[in-house]
Design a protein that fits this description.
single chain, 71 residues, mainly alpha, 1 helix
């Protein structure tokens, strides 16, 4: 096992910088994938809301028509 150094050398700092940069690149890639998933979720929610409102509109129209024809 290597003995602990009392000072950081430029090579060790470069290695540390590279590993930190690699970690940030992984996080950025994850954020991009997450943004895509959130966009798809929002799209699905809008489509669902439009479908529910349409069904309610048709349902209320059917009820009004039913009452209008029977009374």
């Amino acid at each position: 096992m290597e003995a602990m150094r009392s000072r950081w050398t430029d090579d060790r700092l470069d290695d540390l910088k590279q590993s930190v940069d690699d970690g940030f690149q992984e996080v950025k890639g994850s954020i991009v994938r997450l943004d895509g998933r959130i966009d798809r979720l929002q799209h699905a929610m809008v489509v669902s809301a439009v479908a529910i409102y349409s069904m309610m509109f048709v349902g209320f129209g059917a009820i009004i028509t039913l009452f209008a024809t029977h009374f």
